[in-house]
Amino acid sequence: MTKKPKLTFPRPPARPDEIPDFSDVDVGQPGAIGVPPLDLLAKDSRPYANGLIRVMNSGGKPVGPWADLIADQDASALRQGLRDMLKMRAIDKRMLNAQRQGKTSFYLQCTGEEAIGCAFQRTLQKGDMNFPTYRQQTLLIAADYPLEAMLGQLYSNAYDPLKGKQLPTLHSSRKHGFFTVSGNLGTQYIQAVGWAMANALTGDGGIAAGWIGDGATASNDFHSALLCASTYQPPVVLNIVNNQWAISTYTGMASGNSRTYASRARGYGIPALRVDGNDYLAVAAVSKWAVQRARSGHGPVAIEWFTYRAAAHSSSDDPSGYRPKDEAAAWPLGDPVDRLKTHLIYRGEWSEERHIQTEVEILAEVTEAQKKVEAAGTLVNPGSMSASLIFDGVYAEMPEHLRRQRQEMGI
Amino acid sequence: MTKKPKLTFPRPPARPDEIPDFSDVDVGQPGAIGVPPLDLLAKDSRPYANGLIRVMNSGGKPVGPWADLIADQDASALRQGLRDMLKMRAIDKRMLNAQRQGKTSFYLQCTGEEAIGCAFQRTLQKGDMNFPTYRQQTLLIAADYPLEAMLGQLYSNAYDPLKGKQLPTLHSSRKHGFFTVSGNLGTQYIQAVGWAMANALTGDGGIAAGWIGDGATASNDFHSALLCASTYQPPVVLNIVNNQWAISTYTGMASGNSRTYASRARGYGIPALRVDGNDYLAVAAVSKWAVQRARSGHGPVAIEWFTYRAAAHSSSDDPSGYRPKDEAAAWPLGDPVDRLKTHLIYRGEWSEERHIQTEVEILAEVTEAQKKVEAAGTLVNPGSMSASLIFDGVYAEMPEHLRRQRQEMGI
Amino acid sequence: MPQMTMIEALRDAMDVKLSDDPAVVVFGEDVGYFGGVFRCTAGLQAKHGETRVFDTPINESAIAGMAIGMATHGMRPCVEMQFADYVFPAYDQLTQEAARMRFRSNGQFTCPMVVRMPTGGGIFGGQTHSQSPEAIFTHVSGLKTVIPSTPFDAKGLLIAAIEDPDPVIFLEPKRLYNGPFYGEHGGESVGWASHSAGEVPEGNYSIPIGKADVRREGRDLTILAYGTMVYVAEAAVKEAGIDAEIIDLRSLVPLDLETIRASVENTGRCVVVHEATRTSGFGAELIAEVQEACFWHLKSPIARVAGWDAPYPHAAEWDYFPGPKRVAQALSKAMEN
Amino acid sequence: MPQMTMIEALRDAMDVKLSDDPAVVVFGEDVGYFGGVFRCTAGLQAKHGETRVFDTPINESAIAGMAIGMATHGMRPCVEMQFADYVFPAYDQLTQEAARMRFRSNGQFTCPMVVRMPTGGGIFGGQTHSQSPEAIFTHVSGLKTVIPSTPFDAKGLLIAAIEDPDPVIFLEPKRLYNGPFYGEHGGESVGWASHSAGEVPEGNYSIPIGKADVRREGRDLTILAYGTMVYVAEAAVKEAGIDAEIIDLRSLVPLDLETIRASVENTGRCVVVHEATRTSGFGAELIAEVQEACFWHLKSPIARVAGWDAPYPHAAEWDYFPGPKRVAQALSKAMEN
Ligand SMILES: Cc1ncc(C[n+]2csc(CCOP(=O)(O)OP(=O)(O)O)c2C)c(N)n1
Ligand SMILES: Cc1ncc(C[n+]2csc(CCOP(=O)(O)OP(=O)(O)O)c2C)c(N)n1
Ligand SMILES: [Mg+2]
Ligand SMILES: [Mg+2]
């Protein structure tokens, strides 16, 4: 049994010229895992952290106790969910295109992950705060963030609520419960814990939701967030979006020998669950449970959303350099839009025709908004952002040295 | 079951005017936990991570499979262990005294934790490297570090191998497998992983041992060390010395809701064990197992040494401000010196008389060395450290600007 | 008027604000039950309760990150880093997050928080209990950096910092905690009790952030200093027998350039003093600004006296510390031309 | 001689050292299989194997900490931070550990390692892909800080950095990766293929760390610049029509003060240019040194042109970037006296 110490270098199941291979991914069975009590303890959460909570079977039928938990969701709520996802997809399509045309400097899609943010957001209340990454635009969509504001920021024009100060895709809307996204990975996670502590200290009834990617769980702030959430027990839902990739780096680099990210959180004494993130019903059910748990004073909870990043990392990335082109299609848990559609059709509340019609309507809505917003300027046709804005908002009051610099600029 | 979110603030079992209370500490039974195979996996290490490995019973008799693992240790090796611990204790006593007399600026004892470093070090080979904290002087003692060098650094005089550049107690001796101790908590832990990676990459046969206090497990470097050890599987033993306190802060602040620090490591996919750190035989046995595991290529392992910081945090600290004066005496796992003594007497290899005589001998040896070293200068009677040393060793070669500054200093 | 040490003055500032404003919270390592390793928060938890004053795990970026979450929510955290030497793990959160919130969210999220930390050497703390990291903060737009040199200023500036709408780095010269320090290791130690600046009014008062204090008027030369170095400068002026004006900056960003300019235009000579390492220290910024603002008035090069470009060496601390002798030499040299 | 982009030159330097010295390892985020988001390490893993060139988890302090462990063991890690904007979590490990090893262990443990990172703006990267953090490293004794401006220098300096016995912060001006950039956003983009500095010898050669390069000789004024700003200075000199000497510092610490002094003594005028924010930027240090060294030769105040003291604003990038117009203005103004 003796061997020489040798390093391991985690590898993805397949590289570009290989056949996609998810045979090691154990997806379990829909309906197999129960609903724990709201005051679940970390030590009792092992089956939830190591298993995979699923609701829909392949025919779109919801099964098991998690399905029962959201049996009260009527078809119109689910149709709204489908529309949210389709809207996100339409925006992704149009804006990637706009980026290709040089109208914006940068874009970033969330294809394949739409169910997570869309379903989660619809369980939140006004006053709750998300601490998202750049890939949770869905939270804004499902919070009914105005299209003009979203696209305006992508074009950095007069519609941009941030006045061109921040990168496209790094949105911010306090009113919509969407914390200002940082370019530095991980930092928001411990801030979410601090915000939730303020929720508890002020007793304002709100909760916080932290968001992080699988790759960024490696960051220090992931650790400090889990640690402080475990210590102080604030009302925070700590979401981990495991989409298998971090740019070109396979998720195994961040998970190492851990079974799941949920089990890593469990090691911190935080109850954790692992959920099929491509199953809108599973996301809705677990979000409902988790948000209720946090709000009713049972402390933090961690959720690993298991999904797949179907698109490139961003408009600067070409994944054909590091993974098989058809890997997304091989993902064993399918596509979130297809699956919710199947469910609604199974339920007799939707049809292929209505679906296509809705897609067309939504694309038209997005396209119209886009035209309107583009008229205010794009990267090829810049609107007039005032240079003096550079000095505004560095501090609440402009100090002398910034005033001098603004004068030096000649404005 | 609904309540309002409220923060928890972990509290120690007792504060100054209360009666020490360790009733929540489950110490299990000596001999109750088995010896796992060298290639133990994290998922199979739960009983070891949540339990407490003990060897000696209250009569000093070694029991169970871990006792068998070190049955080959003869009495002379154990007497050496006892002597190592007594030497450490004598140094602590003399040097705290010296600090009180103003002869050195700072001192820091390890009373109550002597078994851990002393027994661990004796399982290492030449070329292995410890990455210690300030409280692992025992590693140096058991590596037969010359007393003159150790005391010399404490007095920052001509005997000081570091020439006064570093604080007393932050030792460094490459030759003795003792990495330069940092004043910044935690930093050494990920460095230990890097060193172990170099062991594996160069195939030099060495291993690394990281050391960290319970309080410092909160540091970011604890996380990055566990993460990278899990990912790359280098030959490293990650030691956590849980002595219940971090200055005035109870260990509950760092452990939060985690059962044990070992279970936190297990969440990273690293097999972990929890051990009675006041039981010299348990430390010797588990160290032997862990070092062999690492050296024979089975990857990282984490060990939580469960102990109690019997003395003040340092010479700057007065624990009567935050814990009961007699808490150390109430520690359910006793004192490591007493317990090894009891074992040797049980074995017929030691006696009260020999013990007292040995204590006297060792104190004399330390006192003599101290006198000799003190003659070269102390804080009240400073030796002549050259000021020009300030500029030496900032870089391998002194750059121009440091040369100018040295000239400016006039030397 | 009550006489206080700097520690008591800082504690009093927090006490006043904890009493005034329910949004204020105080936390850090050993800060709660025990009251801090320097005792700056002693008694505050007992008085205001555990939800207002509490201990934290040993993770400086977590302390900063939690404070940011609370501050953006609307609270006013005032946190302690046990030593300035341990603030570095929090550097990312402080400079990329706290400092940037207002700007990057176009004012939707703001970050009123204070980060207190004991700074500077002279206590035989070696390289990890002695550093003066002000310059790595003054380089960062969005942060203010403040450093008091008296109990009176300490209280007034800390209250101003807690009330400030933006993040403030609050450096506390630990060598001044218990009394002024004139830079002579062997010298007699004087307490604040017998110093006029130890008189500290009760209740709420504040000192505007961004205003320097002329500590000594003089015609021959201007000394720019802050923290402990203000006293070292006083000692050096005595030693050199030069009629120097001593300006205690108190706030590094924003900088009171007007006061500095007025003085240097008057004296025509300037010496800059700090304890931090010389290269890229805040002294460089001062020299750059002064030479630009007062070039035509300068009679001799602006000199700087600073910590050598080396780690703080434990045993050679007093050869490292820029004491009155070195400052006096620089003063005399500046007068040569 | 082969013509290379700066990316190719850097890759070639690592390739040469990986081939030369088994102790060299290269790692970082996306650095292994994929070859880095800027492609600097493309092909190196395929050529040298996974044990020499590998990917890491996304944790910059872990990258630094592992490198320190390896370097103190005896290896020579050359690691990448994906952007200089993401180096801050590693600030503690780099400044309190890597920089201090040799000193605090009295030479028992040393830390020969290189930390590469793309720096600077001009690529519409917003506030978190554009920063120039050199000054927070130049303040730290024990570190060297290097920044090339040509493919030739990039290779020679990177080899020197890898061979250096001490830790080196290696800043790569990302705007120069593919060609020189003269500061005009709308301007024609030129590749290195048509630039003489794109000629890069094969094999091992190195450029000593600490030697500046006089990029243009001139009699009227000295411009101190580094990285992208060297080209902006060239453009500004043309625009202003002034016979300026342009010094490309190449190494900030150690600084080639002799070359600087000789030039300024000759010209009597000096303008300092950098992209980092102005306050406490490295320009302050340059001004402090120059005014001290050359005071009696100065005919006008030393001016600095730098990034405004604000976060890099995405949409107003070209109002923020200190372009040739601003530099030219400063040159003209410096000539007025
Ligand atoms: C501190 C920091 N380091 C590195 C980066 C560069 N970076 C941007 S996105 C990314 C990958 C993140 O992957 P993951 O967390 O899995 O999120 P995903 O993109 O898959 O949603 C990296 C390395 C960064 N933004 N911040
Ligand atoms: C980064 C950092 N933060 C804070 C400190 C101050 N400090 C020194 S020791 C200590 C307590 C450490 O407790 P623990 O890790 O349990 O080790 P122990 O002292 O019990 O051996 C603290 C907070 C430090 N040295 N470094
Ligand atoms: Mg990912
Ligand atoms: Mg401890």
Note the main attributes of this structure.
heterotetramer, A: 411 residues, alpha/beta, five-stranded parallel β-sheet, two-stranded antiparallel sheet, 7 strands, 8% strand, globular, C: 337 residues, seven-stranded mixed β-sheet, 12 helices, 34% helix, binds thiamine diphosphate, binds magnesium ion
* N/C terminus separation of chain A: 74 Å
**Uncertain spans of chain A:** none
> Helix content range of the residues of chain A, please?
25-40%
How do the helices and strands follow one another from N- to C-terminus of chain C?
HEHEHEHHEHEHEEEHEEHEHEHH
The oligomeric status of these chains comes to heterotetramer
List the helices and strands and how they pair.
The complex is a heterotetramer, with 2 copies of chain A (411 residues) and 2 copies of chain C (337 residues).
Chain A: H1 46-50, H2 65-69, H3 75-100, H4 114-121, E1 129-131, H5 137-142, H6 147-155, H7 187-202, E2 208-213, H8 220-232, E3 236-242, E4 245-246, E5 249-250, H9 252-255, H10 261-267, E6 272-276, H11 280-295, E7 301-306, H12 327-330, H13 336-346, H14 352-374, H15 400-409
Parallel strand pairs in A: 1-2, 2-3, 3-7, 6-7
Antiparallel strand pairs in A: 4-5
Chain C: H1 6-20, E1 24-28, H2 44-48, E2 53-55, H3 60-73, E3 76-80, H4 91-97, H5 101-104, E4 114-119, H6 134-138, E5 144-146, H7 151-163, E6 168-173, E7 213-216, E8 221-225, H8 229-240, E9 244-248, E10 251-253, H9 257-267, E11 270-277, H10 282-294, E12 303-307, H11 317-320, H12 324-335
The structure holds thiamine diphosphate (TPP) (2 copies) and magnesium ion (2 copies).
The site of one magnesium ion has 7 residues of chain A, from β4.
